[in-house]
Amino acid sequence: MNYAMVGYSGKMGKEITETFSEAGHRLVVKADENGIEEFGTPEVVIDFSRPEALKTTIELCKKYSAGLVIGTTALKEEDFEALRELSKTVPVVQSFNFSIGINVMLKILPELSNLLKDWDAEIIETHHRFKKDAPSGTAILLKNSLNKDVPTHSVRIGGIPGDHVVIFGNLGETIEIKHHAISRKVFAIGALRAAEFILKNKKPGFYTFSQILEGGI
Ligand code: NAD
User: Fold this and answer.
1) pTM above threshold 0.85
2) N or C: which end of the chain has fewer CB within 10 A?
3) Which is the CATH superfamily of the domain at 2-98+185-213?
4) How far from chain centre, in Å, is Cα 143?
5) Eight-class DSSP state of 159
């Protein structure tokens, strides 16, 4: 496929362009905070950047009638409104986490939370020192899956790609559900899966990565 990468010079941009080129796909539009270079027609736009880039991303999708895979975090409600509007004309896949493990956690946590209704629960997320937003988008997804308001703690240290732990406890015991991303590659592979879904499906709509994995998990 021909694809556009918004945030191509970033940590995720590098990982994604490497993974997509290993799969034989061609980068034809590159965008980052320094501008845009266009040298082909993208079928899919991938955005792992900053919320400030969303306007550029949506313009690219409209200009080329391209679907969108967006993993950028710290999006606000107005950003989601803009994405839902875009999804009336092209397919949009959005997730704050493109790993399979976290999406499996999101499936089991509502049941666990329900079984452990009267236990305490807290979330700890740990990321590299350069991460700009806190709590992480993934911590927000995990918290929403518990269907109750729980304290969330953010640790910024070293080069950790992303660790998330949900701890349940009563006076005599604890249960921890933990996800550890060994490398950023896992998110790039998820973004590739989402882009391939868009190419096959082509139907406009707003999809989460969990929905795409349905049946595949
Ligand atoms: P980074 O700081 O290394 O890179 C950010 C990129 O965005 C750079 O290329 C920068 O030039 C570009 N950028 C910044 N402002 C821009 C603008 N106004 N217009 C166009 N481009 C702009 O960050 P990163 O670690 O690569 O992470 C990027 C995003 O992906 C973050 O929001 C991060 O939280 C998110 N992320 C999501 C997942 C997921 O699975 N959904 C996984 C990892 C990271």
Assistant:
1) yes
2) C
3) NAD(P)-binding Rossmann-like Domain (3.40.50.720)
4) 15
5) T
